[in-house]
Amino acid sequence: MNSTDRSGDVARRSVYLDHAATSRPKPPAVAAAMDRYMREVCASPGRGGYALSLDAGRIVFRARAALKQLFNAASEESVVFTLNVTHALNIAMHGLIRPGDRVVTTSVEHNSVIRPLRQLQADHGLELTIVQCDRHGMLDPSDMARAVQPGTRAVVMTHASNVLGSILPIAEVGRIAHEAGAFFIVDTAQTAGVLDIDFNEVGADVLAFTGHKSLMGPPGTGGFVVGAEAAKQMRPLFSGGTGSRSHLETQPEELPDRFEAGTMNTVGIAGLAAGVEFIAGVGMERVRRHELELAATFIEGAQAIDGVEVYGPGAREARVPTVSVGLAGRDLAQMAYALDAEHGVMVRPGLHCSPLAHRTAGTFPEGTLRFSFGCFNTREEVDYALSALATVAMSAGE
């Protein structure tokens, strides 16, 4: 996005490069869909037989249909809405994992995976195995095959590292998990809307997604696609009103109501539907190609800056458009502040809620400066960000 912010009479350029956290800006259709809901509908789906409630229900179904198509899910009902991907992963892990179970994960997980697993380990004696990735964040499936033995309850892993940008081989791991009789739970926070993900082909039992990143929806949206056997065995994380089977004093068994207690974020879901439809209309492969070209340009330029080290895989096809860099002996938080305050370039410093990935890359506890690119960024903005990084790196070394 090309823009300027004004402080007094001085125009300042603004370049947003933190799409791995939240995509910005959103397509105009997202705000329009949310505005229409608030102005013209603003009723709860499934809570009445009047026209506005039915209209709200159609909005939610439209979102389910768009996500069903995106992930090639079995049905609209197998798409469950949550507040975000962390919420979805907690429902899956707390719902499927029992006391004493054995679970396998990787060394590049976000805290949305490792913290619930550590909680289950502390509270219920979970036996946890963490499979080591290489320093670029790449996972060897043979290492996972050695770790996933018969009797393993679940394999829980990210599709791509939010620190290193590395894409993990989830289809191969899915086969390994199922051969061992384990459930396979996948965190697609960094890949939904970036990579083509077929729920059946990757062998997922639960595929968790978030709405506010590359699906171009608003914050407070997300969910998961769930397979039939996992849905039967997953205990709901919480229970309550669903607008269906109100005569029961227990949670309905049917999907998606089994996991959707309480009034949902219908206005957010309206925006999410518009975001998913935008990605489908533009073409995910076109978006990915553009974003990876920007990332490749940035990596080449950053490697030419004295003192800058680029982390993650070198091959373009092995990563998502997220690039972490480091500068030995420099205060990364101060550099991020200078990039924003002096140049209007917005990036994220630190550990990015993924200490495991930083230990894997050798960047713990300092962390990295993370540059992540979106579909509305331009080559001109990448060149400008590189110039700003070079200037700040030089100033920080003085």
Jot down its keywords:
398 residues, alpha/beta, Aspartate Aminotransferase, domain 1, Aspartate Aminotransferase, domain 2, 2 domains, seven-stranded mixed sheet, four-stranded antiparallel sheet, 12 helices, disordered N terminus
Describe the protein in words.
By secondary structure, the protein is α/β, with parallel strands linked by helices. The protein has 2 domains: 3-17 and 283-396, Aspartate Aminotransferase, domain 1, CATH 3.90.1150.10; 28-281, Type I PLP-dependent aspartate aminotransferase-like (Major domain) (Aspartate Aminotransferase, domain 2), CATH 3.40.640. It contains 12 helices and 14 strands. It has helices spanning 28-41, 51-71, 85-96, 111-124, 141-147, 170-179, 228-233, 266-282, 284-303, 332-343, 355-361, 379-396; strands at residues 3-7, 10-16, 79-82, 102-106, 127-131, 152-158, 183-187, 206-210, 222-226, 308-310, 322-327, 345-346, 348-350, 368-372. The chain is globular, with a radius of gyration of 22 Å. It starts with a strand and ends with a helix. Residues 1-10 have low confidence and may be disordered.
What's the arrangement of secondary structure elements?
Blueprint: E1 3-7, E2 10-16, H1 28-41, H2 51-71, E3 79-82, H3 85-96, E4 102-106, H4 111-124, E5 127-131, H5 141-147, E6 152-158, H6 170-179, E7 183-187, E8 206-210, E9 222-226, H7 228-233, H8 266-282, H9 284-303, E10 308-310, E11 322-327, H10 332-343, E12 345-346, E13 348-350, H11 355-361, E14 368-372, H12 379-396
Parallel strand pairs: 2-12, 4-5, 4-6, 6-7, 7-8
Antiparallel strand pairs: 1-2, 3-9, 8-9, 10-11, 11-14, 13-14
Helix pairs in contact: 1-8, 2-8, 3-4, 9-12, 10-12
